[in-house]
Design goal:
Elements: H1 2-18, E1 26-35, H2 36-47, E2 50-52, E3 63-72, H3 73-81, E4 86-91, E5 94-99, E6 104-113, E7 124-127, E8 132-135, E9 141-147, E10 152-156, E11 163-166, E12 173-174, E13 177-179, H4 196-199, E14 205-208, H5 210-215, H6 225-229, E15 235-236, E16 246-247, E17 255-259, E18 262-263, E19 268-269, E20 274-275, E21 282-288, E22 302-308, E23 317-323, E24 326-336, E25 340-349, H7 351-354, H8 356-362, E26 370-387, E27 390-412, E28 420-445, E29 448-472, E30 480-505, E31 508-532, E32 535-542, E33 547-561, E34 566-579, E35 582-596, E36 602-612, E37 614-617, E38 628-631, E39 639-651, E40 657-674, E41 692-708, E42 713-727, E43 737-738, E44 745-755, E45 759-768, E46 772-773, E47 778-782, E48 798-802, E49 809-810, E50 814-827, E51 830-839, E52 849-854, E53 861-866, E54 872-880
Parallel strand pairs: 2-5, 6-12, 6-13, 17-22
Antiparallel strand pairs: 1-3, 4-5, 6-9, 7-8, 7-10, 10-11, 14-21, 15-16, 17-18, 19-20, 21-22, 23-24, 23-54, 24-25, 25-26, 26-27, 27-28, 28-29, 29-30, 30-31, 31-32, 31-33, 33-34, 34-35, 35-36, 36-39, 37-38, 39-40, 40-41, 41-42, 42-43, 42-44, 44-45, 45-50, 46-49, 47-48, 50-51, 51-54, 52-53
Length: 881
């Protein structure tokens, strides 16, 4: 009897337990970063609340963190499901989950500086509840489709205080976000920011901030964009002291350098020591070493995308800077407050003014002689807002380098005769860039953004010389020699481009567009005339030809979030090039893949094909800017490359550290080089195609990058292990040889330490394997006939070198330590900035080039290394108002 009573009580009690929960049931739960499905299983296990749903309809893989204590069940359900687009209701003993009706809405707009109106590139707009987000594009525009019940968005940007933006309604809307700059480092230590390296499919990309560029140790007082890029893994600087870049085994012409979406063909000043980009007008710099998005094309090795500031919309201010080498000024402000702004920068070197007397004396130019070398450049940009949906940008750049040497003197003969001579020599070397852009932004709807760009750019190079030699006091015939020469080259292009950003939903970010470019090439015009007593006038002018080409391209790419752990970027870039009635066509697929591994490590893979329709004829025997840009022809086809990369990446949960490791392999076809023993002026003929050879190239290696991004102490360590090789018929017997910029090991250490609010210290140490070197393996003497124009004493036997294998030796290894200190003080609305830098602190003699020099004692030739950059202190002073 007792057993029957107990069994009856048990059967009665169980269903009471099942149906015992109600909306006021108190829940205590603490879980971190768990899928919704796991959270529901935990509640079901501990409270007997059963959930019913279809995984095809309700996305339970979204991850959440929850920490509640004795909270009513209904409120817990709202926290878990309301912002995830999930509706819940009780049916019997079940909690049934379904997708909300009209679950999404799109928030779009611009992210800008609250004080100046400057648009912020790459700002993160993020929904913490849904763990979905996006970033603003290069114009500061963003579009995020999220759950209709989303209560707020978190907006963050490095160097600015984060903003929590409440969403009061549930409709699509434009929302312009204004972020305030941080005054202290502590304010920018944002721990809630989306871990970007894990979430982005993009790999082989480096973003540089203006603060990183300006905080680096400076050479001769000038902060430099390209010199900062050299400190990144996979980027080599070429010759010691120059600011050129060679990316993953590529040559200089294989870098697409864009200034406000306009190509710049020569990016250096002062024989390559400085870049043409004034950091005072730069807003953002993106470097792509591979995994190129489909919107980029036309080069094989890298893309450097530089965006200029827009100008302050509300207040006038500027900066004046004085350095050892150059002075510069920047002014910005509103033309019409809140509607139109401008920014203007200009700089010029003045070493020629300071060192004029010294150079005249050292070069023995005579009383009337002169020598000067300087560069200048200027930028201007105007930004106008027509409406909330339309903005117009006009930007322009102009810069030029000039070097001139004039010698004018009378002297006595050195061979013991009584003759006197008068000599006049004038030499001029100059090159420059111009770049202009007109851009129009338009918002069609919250999910579709467009940008139309019209631009023009050109690069030119010119050399002129005039030599006059006159014998004085000659009784009968006055000996004379009068020569004049001129050499120039030029490349121009004008283009029209349209780009669209379309974000249909949080899983897809689509970009598509097209480009048409008109190229004009004048690869080399040379003239020469000679008048002397012994010969009649010789006048030569050739290659006065203009080559034209039209380049067309279309592209489309989709950044597709397949699952939370799987991200795919699919794209294609198609292009064609019409030149001399020949049409080249290329289809270039692009693939990026990202998979989230345990502990939030991201595994990334990319595959890229690139085509380049223009070539740069580079002479290895000169360090001047005498390179010639030419178009692909029937004889010299376009270059092609294929690159595969695999890597790991992670940002720590607190956002302080980033780590990436990448391995890559790149092959190149139709790379060109001058034939052996050809000088630049002979190459400037109309038959330049006959002066080059075509071959193949390979580069492969591994890159490691560790960066600390927050706190008073910041910096990075970058290491590159790389191989770069070339192969040409009839060069090196057709065997593969190391490319001239091949460097096996490169290590960069960059550290900055902030001391209080006024001082910031920086140091950079770099090490790299020496570049390949070709030296003669033997020599023989050759007796030449006496020259009728030279004294008999100069008719010595000539020595001819035998050169066999190319680049079998290496220069001495390169290493250098640079230090910098910046002091910032603000008083009465003015900011004073003092920078003291020390280049090559321990005076390392790094090689610039090698040459043979005859030892006067042994009369034997000895290999001699030339080093041009010893320890160099510098000071610059800036006033910001």
């Amino acid at each position: 009897m007792m057993r029957k009573v107990l069994l009856g009580l048990l059967l009665t009690w169980l269903p009471l337990q099942v149906f015992a929960w109600n909306w006021r049931t108190r829940i205590s739960l603490s879980l971190n970063d768990q899928p919704l499905s796991a959270i529901c299983e935990k509640i079901e296990k501990e409270y007997g609340i059963h959930f019913s749903y279809s995984s095809d309809v309700v996305k339970m893989s979204r991850r959440m963190s929850i920490d509640v204590d004795q909270m009513p069940l209904r409120r817990v359900m709202e926290l878990l499901f309301s912002e995830n687009g999930i509706e819940f209701r009780r049916i019997g003993d079940q909690l049934v989950l379904t997708a909300s009706k009209a679950t999404t809405r799109t928030i779009s707009g611009y992210v800008e500086d609250a004080l100046t109106g400057e648009k912020l590139i790459g700002a993160t707009i993020y929904s913490p509840a849904l763990r979905v987000g996006t970033t603003s594009n290069q114009f500061g525009f963003y579009s995020l489709t999220t759950a209709r019940d989303t209560l707020s968005l978190l907006v963050t940007y490095t160097g600015y205080s984060p903003a929590q933006i409440p969403l009061k309604d549930k409709e699509n809307r434009q929302l312009h976000v204004k972020l305030g700059p941080s005054n202290t480092l502590q304010e920018v230590e944002v721990t809630e920011t989306l871990p970007q390296l894990q979430e982005q499919t993009q790999m082989s990309k480096v973003n540089l901030s203006v603060s990183q560029i300006k905080n680096m140790p400076r050479m001769l007082g000038e902060a430099d964009v390209l010199r900062t890029i050299q400190a990144m893994p996979g980027v080599s600087g070429g010759m010691e002291g120059t600011s050129g870049i060679h990316v993953r085994g590529g040559s200089p012409d294989q870098n697409l350098i864009l200034l406000d979406n306009t190509p710049v063909y020569n990016s250096t000043h002062l024989f390559g020591i400085f870049s043409v980009f004034n950091p005072d007008i730069i807003k953002n710099v993106d470097l792509y070493k591979g995994a190129f998005p489909a919107r980029y094309g036309g080069r094989l090795s890298s893309v450097v995308d530089i965006s200029m500031k827009d100008g302050d919309m509300y207040k006038y201010h500027g900066e004046v800077s004085l350095g050892l080498l150059a002075s510069k000024i920047m002014v910005e402000g509103p033309i019409k407050k809140g509607k139109t702004s401008f920014i203007l920068t200009a700089r010029r070197t003045y070493a020629d003014l300071i060192m004029s007397d010294f150079t005249k004396r050292e070069l023995n130019l005579g009383e009337d002689g002169e020598f000067f070398a300087y560069f200048y450049d200027a930028n201007i940009k105007i930004n106008h807002i027509f409406s909330p949906k339309d903005r117009l940008y006009i930007s322009a750049y102009g810069g030029q380098d000039n070097m001139s040497l004039n010698r004018n003197m009378t002297f006595d003969s050195m061979n013991g005769t009584a003759k006197r001579y008068h000599e006049e020599m004038r030499f001029r070397l100059g090159w420059g860039n111009q770049a202009y852009a007109l851009r129009w932004n338009h918002i069609f709807n919250p999910r579709l953004f467009s940008n139309v760009t019209l631009n023009y750019s050109q690069f030119y190079f010119i050399t002129e010389y005039h030599y006059k030699h006159l014998a004085l006091d000659t009784p009968a015939i006055r000996e004379s020699d009068n020569m004049f020469g001129r050499y120039m080259s030029k490349v121009q292009n004008a283009s029209a481009k349209i780009d669209f950003d379309y974000k249909p939903n949080p899983k897809h970010a689509v970009k598509f567009g097209g480009l048409a470019t008109w190229h004009i090439f004048q690869p080399g015009i040379t003239s020469f005339n000679n008048v002397s007593d012994e010969q009649e006038l010789t006048d030569t002018a050739y290659n006065n030809q203009t080559s034209k080409g039209v380049e067309l391209s279309l592209y489309a790419e989709d950044d597709w979030k397949i699952r939370d752990s799987v991200h795919l970027n699919l794209g294609v870039h198609t292009s064609g090039f019409l030149v001399n009635n020949r049409f080249y066509f290329s289809v270039q697929p692009r693939l990026g893949f990202r998979y989230i591994l345990p502990k939030r490590w991201a595994l990334k893979l990319s595959y890229t094909m690139m085509t380049q329709y223009i070539h740069l004829l580079t002479n290895n025997a000169t360090f001047l800017a005498t390179d010639l840009w030419v178009a692909a022809t029937d004889k010299v086809p376009p270059m092609f490359s294929t690159q595969v990369a695999l890597g790991l990446a992670k940002t720590t949960n607190d956002g302080k550290y980033e780590f990436s490791a990448e391995g890559y392999y790149k092959s190149m076809q139709n790379v060109i080089e001058y034939v052996e023993n050809l000088d630049n002026f002979n190459s400037a003929t109309s038959s330049w195609e006959d002066q080059v050879i075509q071959g193949r190239g390979w580069s492969y290696g591994a890159e490691l990058f560790l960066q600390k991004k927050q706190g008073n102490f910041r910096g990075w360590v970058a290491y590159t292990l790389a191989w770069s090789q070339r192969s040409f018929p009839n060069v090196n017997n057709g065997s593969i040889f190391p490319y001239k910029y091949d460097r096996r090991h490169e290590l960069e250490v960059v550290l900055t330490q902030r001391l209080g609010k006024k001082w910031e210290l920086s140091c950079q140490w770099q090490y790299s394997t020496g570049m390949p070197l070709t030296l003669p393996t033997g020599s023989y003497e050759q007796i030449t006939d006496p020259s009728p124009h030279l004294p008999p004493t100069t008719n010595d036997p000539g020595q001819v070198d035998l050169v066999q294998d190319r680049n079998t030796l290496r220069m001495q290894e390169v290493h250098r330590l640079d230090l910098g200190a910046t002091h910032t003080k603000t008083r009465k609305g003015l900011t004073y900035i003092l920078n003291i830098s020390l280049y090559n602190v321990y005076n390392q003699q790094n090689p610039f080039f090698y040459y043979y020099k005859r030892n006067e004692g042994t009369q034997k030739r000895e290999l001699t290394m030339m080093s041009i950059l010893p320890i160099l202190p510098s000071v610059s002073y800036a006033l910001r108002f």
